[in-house]
Design a protein that fits this description.
This protein is mostly helical and 272 residues long. It has eleven helices and two strands, in the order H-H-H-E-E-H-H-H-H-H-H-H-H. It is 74% helix and 2% strand.
């Protein structure tokens, strides 16, 4: 303990926040995932695919077509698939940056050991967020390939959905880790699921925004997942607009806010 306190006193200023070695945190996470958590990661790939097959293909056979933002009739499966793609990126990022971080922080005491070295809180935050981003990206790529196999990518601009997914995953992972740093019990962690489930159901995932009353529409448009769904849906259907830049800006704001928030919180917990 004396050594930890002495190390914390010595490291002030910029170097106390960032040592430029977040890749070490990422590498450690990849090794741990390969040895112990790979089955959890793999099973997470199938949930959105089951949703797509049951609702998009199964229920979609009864619904038929829906009208997209340009007034064209498209298969119902092609309408909900990009939404599930955004959900896939969100889930992969949010679960890695919440439950995994919660365990490392409160049970493994991993961050205390990391911050006793030359690593700074921004190194730890970036490393963990990049690990969550990688998981979200893997989920997104797998689902994008399923969409391609089913003929649900209606435009070549679906290729741009991959970088869009990384931005979405980065935004959720940044905020997720910051929020988790304040949670201390499993009961508090359950609140994350209570937030994600209604956001998943409401964010124009299965129904157009127009089916909701106007006050509810404004509430939904404030949710991050709605921005992700609209961004990815525009890319996979080929309906592009300048409004998509607003969706990207929303997630860039989430990333910046999450990084600052998480870095300050880790420093307050383990260095000050």
């Amino acid at each position: 303990m004396t050594l930890l306190l002495a190390t914390a006193r010595e490291r002030r200023g910029v170097r106390s926040l960032y040592a430029g070695n977040s890749r070490a945190v990422l590498a450690r996470g990849l090794i741990a995932t390969r040895s112990t958590n790979w089955l959890v990661v793999v099973t997470g790939l199938f949930e959105p695919i089951f949703y797509l097959l049951s609702l998009g293909v199964g229920l979609g056979g009864l619904i038929g077509t829906v009208t997209d933002g340009a007034g064209n009739d498209i298969p119902y499966a092609a309408y909900i698939a990009p939404a599930l793609l955004a959900v896939s990126a969100m889930n992969g990022a949010i679960y890695d940056s919440t439950w995994n971080v919660f365990f490392k922080m409160h049970f493994a005491k991993l961050y205390e050991g990391m911050l006793a070295t030359r690593l700074g809180p921004l190194d730890v935050a970036l490393g963990e967020i990049l690990l969550a981003l990688l998981r979200g990206g893997v989920y997104g790529i797998a689902f994008l390939l399923v969409m391609q196999a089913l003929g649900l990518n209606l435009s070549w601009t679906a290729l741009l959905a991959l970088p869009a997914l990384l931005v979405i995953a980065f935004g959720f992972a940044s905020i997720g880790m910051g929020v988790t740093s304040y949670l201390k019990t499993f009961q508090q962690m359950d609140v994350i699921g209570l937030v994600l489930l209604p956001m998943f159901l409401l964010s124009a995932t299965f129904f157009p925004l127009s089916v909701y009353p106007e006050p509810v529409q404004w509430f939904i448009m404030a949710l991050p997942l709605w921005h992700g769904v609209e961004l990815v849906r525009g890319l996979t259907t080929g309906i592009l607009s300048f409004g998509m830049l607003g969706h990207v800006a929303y997630f860039l704001g989430m990333i910046a806010l999450g990084l600052v928030f998480t870095t300050r919180r880790l420093r307050a917990l383990f260095l000050d």
